[in-house]
């Protein structure tokens, strides 16, 4: 059997990520999900923004776009609407996807266009050296918050759901097999899918906030993540300080590009 | 079948896009360009195309960049504040060499300015609005029929040179109604994008032909290439070396500069024996025709050099003009923008007089005549 790395990665390794970074695990989870589903490699497009996670597009052997900071979703929307046969997967980060790209995020979710977004959440701007993002926990240290952050972090899964996303899931770099599973389900879902992938940044987030090395941060993911099923049996007190992983929300709604085909059919009938 | 219609400039622009084979529009409503979006929303599904109103101006141009990568001809339209917001993606489409067309129907600025009033104040933003060194192609129609033909031309240039082309209308031209004869769209030659001549295994996404332009593969056809706004080499992958940076920036400029004579478009009106040359463009040119006719009746030898392509600027032609006439007048609806380019090209051989108007009203033929008589 052809190795995944030979089939799906371009011969451009080593990557630029720091030692201990979780982005490689998340990227390989995307590849395993694509492989599991047997997607046509020639009909699958990966679009990213700007930031550490967004560099992943350049390593993967598909048609790939490394777009502008925050703008992966509009570019992906254009690709998907122009050619709905393509599978369009978006790779973004917490800063790219929820700060500068926040408006695009909520509106793309609202439209329920069939894109699968994997948001690598490392709680920090890594590429620029450790500034706080909308997903940095309150009272964290960052190079732009030397006295601690004041702002509250988004719960990006709740935000996506409220904005109209029809599939919302969360996984972690530690629970890599489960991450493959929730990404595969997201790709299979006919509508806007968001998968928040919690990943560790030991260099720019961990070091400033005394979170330990990469393996310690992975163990923290293990110890604080609770599966959706297990969470049902726990009280709010027991869930304090924990976060849920698994499929958090799934619903049915008309998919945008299919609805648009209906517009074309109506317009062409009217024109004739 | 050809038909004769009474259309607005914005309508003619939208119809020109349909005639050129555009099948994708994404945009955001903004005065005075909104009619282009409204018409595309109705017309595109009729021809099997797609229209989407995005959440903001940035998303509008982002979506057309994406759609263009799948091989579609694409359009967005905007004005003033929206044109400012689109600058980042104009730079992206320039370095990543993605063909797109942007119609900018100019209004008074800066900022919200005067949304319903005409201006020509974005001419320098068209040239330098996006950061960094980059080539630009920008066209300025001066009539409703020209909105139609120049829109088609914009696609020819955009596809040929793989870059953004700016259609710089102004509110006068965008909202003016005029007779236009529209040919049967089937008789119009659709601009064609140059595709790869080799298979995926030999394909280098940014390896140029001898014309400096790399063939472009459509997404989804098996070429699996990378598109980035980072400096890249002929493989399309990021390359941070000084050599790759210089090579890419030089090629992006060269592919346009080597063809400047083919790209340059202008009209000469009663210029043969002229002692005074009016150099202008767009809506202001309309008043210049009338002012010249009135001046000629009074025996004043004045003519017009009308810029149709404003960028790249026709330096050579203006330099020749400066050899022929005694004075050049540059009327424009701004504080003085293209006049600087005219001065640069004239190299002091002849006085170059700005006639700037920035009070939200067009320059009337009488005003221009009076200016010419007072020289």
Report on this structure:
The complex is a heterodimer of chains A (272) and B (375). By secondary structure, chain A is an alpha/beta fold. Chain A has a single domain (4-271), classed as 3-Layer(aba) Sandwich (Rossmann fold). Helices cover 40% and strands 17% of the residues of chain A. Chain A has helices at residues 4-8, 23-37, 72-82, 94-100, 102-111, 156-163, 176-188, 202-206, 214-224, 228-231, 236-239, 256-271, and strands at residues 44-48, 63-66, 87-93, 116-121, 167-172, 193-198, 225-227, 243-250. In chain A, strands 2-1-3-4-6-5-8-7 form an eight-stranded mixed beta sheet, with helices on both faces. The longest helix of chain A has 16 residues, at 256-271. With 375 residues, chain B is an alpha/beta fold. Chain B has two domains: 3-187, 3-Layer(aba) Sandwich (Rossmann fold), CATH 3.40.50; 267-373, Rossmann fold (3-Layer(aba) Sandwich). Chain B is 39% helix and 22% strand. Chain B has helices spanning 9-20, 34-46, 57-69, 80-95, 123-128, 144-161, 171-175, 242-257, 260-263, 282-297, 315-324, 338-346, 365-373; strands at residues 3-8, 22-27, 50-53, 73-78, 100-108, 114-118, 137-139, 164-170, 177-182, 226-228, 266-269, 276-280, 302-307, 309-311, 327-332, 352-356. In chain B, the strands form three sheets. In chain B, strands 2, 3, 4, 5, 6, 7, 8 and 14 form an eight-stranded mixed beta sheet that branches. In chain B, helix 2 (34-46) links the parallel strand 2 (22-27) and strand 3 (50-53). Chain B starts with a strand and ends with a helix. The interface between A and B is large, with 42 and 44 residues. Chain A: This is 2-oxoglutarate ferredoxin oxidoreductase, beta subunit. Chain A: InterPro entries: 2-oxoacid:Fd_oxidoreductase, THDP-binding, TPP_enzyme_TPP-bd. Chain A: GO terms for molecular function: oxidoreductase activity, acting on the aldehyde or oxo group of donors, iron-sulfur protein as acceptor; thiamine pyrophosphate binding. Chain A: Keywords: Oxidoreductase. Chain A: Residues 50-196 form the Thiamine pyrophosphate enzyme TPP-binding domain.
């Amino acid at each position: 059997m052809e190795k995944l790395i030979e089939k799906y990665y371009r011969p451009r390794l080593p990557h630029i990520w720091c030692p201990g970074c979780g982005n490689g695990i998340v990227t390989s989870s995307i590849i395993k999900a694509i492989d599991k589903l047997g997607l046509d490699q020639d009909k699958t497009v990966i679009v990213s923004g700007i930031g550490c996670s967004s560099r992943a597009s350049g390593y993967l052997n598909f048609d790939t776009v490394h777009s502008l900071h925050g703008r992966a979703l509009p570019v992906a929307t254009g690709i998907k609407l122009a050619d709905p046969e393509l599978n369009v997967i978006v790779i973004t980060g917490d800063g790219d996807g929820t700060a500068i790209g926040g408006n695009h995020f909520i509106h793309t979710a609202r439209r329920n266009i069939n894109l699968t977004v994997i948001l690598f959440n490392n709680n920090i701007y890594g590429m620029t050296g450790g500034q706080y993002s909308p997903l940095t926990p309150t009272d964290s240290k960052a190079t732009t918050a030397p006295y601690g952050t004041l702002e509250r972090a988004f719960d990006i899964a709740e935000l996506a759901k409220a904005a109209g996303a029809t599939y919302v899931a969360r996984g972690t770099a530690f629970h890599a097999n489960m991450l493959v599973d929730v990404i595969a389900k997201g790709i299979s879902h006919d509508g806007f899918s968001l998968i928040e992938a919690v990943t560790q940044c030991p260099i720019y987030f961990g070091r400033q906030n005394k979170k330990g090395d990469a393996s310690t941060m992975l163990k923290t993911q293990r110890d604080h993540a609770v599966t959706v099923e297990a969470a049902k049996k726990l009280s709010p007190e027991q869930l304090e300080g924990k976060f849920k992983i698994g499929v958090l929300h799934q619903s049915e709604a008309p998919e945008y590009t299919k609805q648009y085909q209906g517009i074309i059919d109506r317009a062409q009938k009217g024109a004739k | 079948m050809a038909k004769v219609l009474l259309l607005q400039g914005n309508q003619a622009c939208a119809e020109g896009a349909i005639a050129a084979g555009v099948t994708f529009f994404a945009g955001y409503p903004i005065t005075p360009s909104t009619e282009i979006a409204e018409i595309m929303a109705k017309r595109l599904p009729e021809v099997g195309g797609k229209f989407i109103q995005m959440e903001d101006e940035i998303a509008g141009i982002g979506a057309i960049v994406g759609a263009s990568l799948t091989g579609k001809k694409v359009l967005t339209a905007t004005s003033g504040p929206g044109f400012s917001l689109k600058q980042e993606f104009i730079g992206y489409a320039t370095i990543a060499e993605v063909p797109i067309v942007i119609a900018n129907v100019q209004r008074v600025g800066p900022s919200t300015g005067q949304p319903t009033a005409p201006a020509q104040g974005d001419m320098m933003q068209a040239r330098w609005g996006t950061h960094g060194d980059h080539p630009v192609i920008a066209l300025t129609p001066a009539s409703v029929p020209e909105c139609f033909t120049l829109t088609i031309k914009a696609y020819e240039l955009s596809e040929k040179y793989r870059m953004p082309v700016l259609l710089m209308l102004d509110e006068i031209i965008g909202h003016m109604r005029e007779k236009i004869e529209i040919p049967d769209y089937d008789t119009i030659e659709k601009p064609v994008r140059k595709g790869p001549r080799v298979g995926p295994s030999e394909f280098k996404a940014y390896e140029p032909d001898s014309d400096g332009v790399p063939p472009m593969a459509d997404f989804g056809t098996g070429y699996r290439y990378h598109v980035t706004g980072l400096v890249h080499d002929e493989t399309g992958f990021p390359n941070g070396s000084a050599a790759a940076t210089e090579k890419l920036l030089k090629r992006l400029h060269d592919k346009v500069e080597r063809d400047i004579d083919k790209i340059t478009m202008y009209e000469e009106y009663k210029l043969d024996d002229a002692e005074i040359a009016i150099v202008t463009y767009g809506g202001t040119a309309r008043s210049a025709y009338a002012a010249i006719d009135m001046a000629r009746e009074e025996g004043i030898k004045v003519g017009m050099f009308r810029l149709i392509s404003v960028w790249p600027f026709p330096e050579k032609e203006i330099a020749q003009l400066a050899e022929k006439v005694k004075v050049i007048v540059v009327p424009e609806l701004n504080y003085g923008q293209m006049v600087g380019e005219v001065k640069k090209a004239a190299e002091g051989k002849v006085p170059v007089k700005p006639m700037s108007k920035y009070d939200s009203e067009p320059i009337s033929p009488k005003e221009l005549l009076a200016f010419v008589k007072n020289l």
